[in-house]
Write a structure and sequence with these properties.
The chain is about 15% helix and about 35% strand. It is mainly beta.
Amino acid sequence: VMNYPNYYWSERDAIVTVVADEDPATDLFQPVIVYQDRKIQSNVSLSQICQDVAKAAGVPEGSIITTGLETQEPLNGYMYEQPTEARSVLEELANCYQFDAVESDYQLIFKMRGGDSIATIPYEHLGVIDTDFGTDNERIAESIQYQAELPERVTISYFDPKKDYENGTQYFKRPTLPLPVVHTREQVEVTFNMALLNKYAKRMAKRLLYAAWSERTTVEFKLPRDYMRFDPSDTISLTLGDGRQIEVRLTDVTLGADATLDCAGVYNYPDSYKYLAETDPPLGVVPQDPVGVM
């Protein structure tokens, strides 16, 4: 029986040792680092974090609805080191995972963006609005953000659990070679106070980039009070004068003095919230294979 020495690594509070392969016939051994007093971090539910933040802000537990939250990427943890507004925490999570939080009938409802349309509005039901262009009977005001103001590249920073929770970064950008697909050089950097694996952070960077482009078109319109059941985050279809339809995700619904609804929204492209991306292999790392010990 061979006894292998154990070495204490003070900088990491860990034990360095050698273990034999499970198959004794191979006669292979591997170095192993055993960290002291370290717990295994499992994934954290996004819905549970939203519930905890809402309850800490004073919202009754029975009034918090998170059944509509579905995450494409697991969350390894969320951290804030000092008292922080619940609104800022939820806004960061909503920006990262692309969901909305809205109050409806004394309930705080969380739902993912990019849902199916719940109603189709006939052109005759759209009220006349005041615009600086078009005719006197304009019913939809549309504005498009300048392409130069939209990001060519999105970089996100986060805590990497595989690097002892040191800062990690991942980015995604629109193609520029051989020919640019966009005419912008704008770069956006976002910092998330959460623990993510590299491959999931890469997906989020891509989704944030394409969401910015898909939501660059905003619309404003008016509806009669018959549609007071609509809430921000609902997706509806608007019928245009020529019979075409556009899908809009509501971002604001305000009841006016004349009982009409002043609505604002962005174009809804469900696929833009479901983009996936793969990370590149790490550079400067040589894969280590088990070495036989005589």
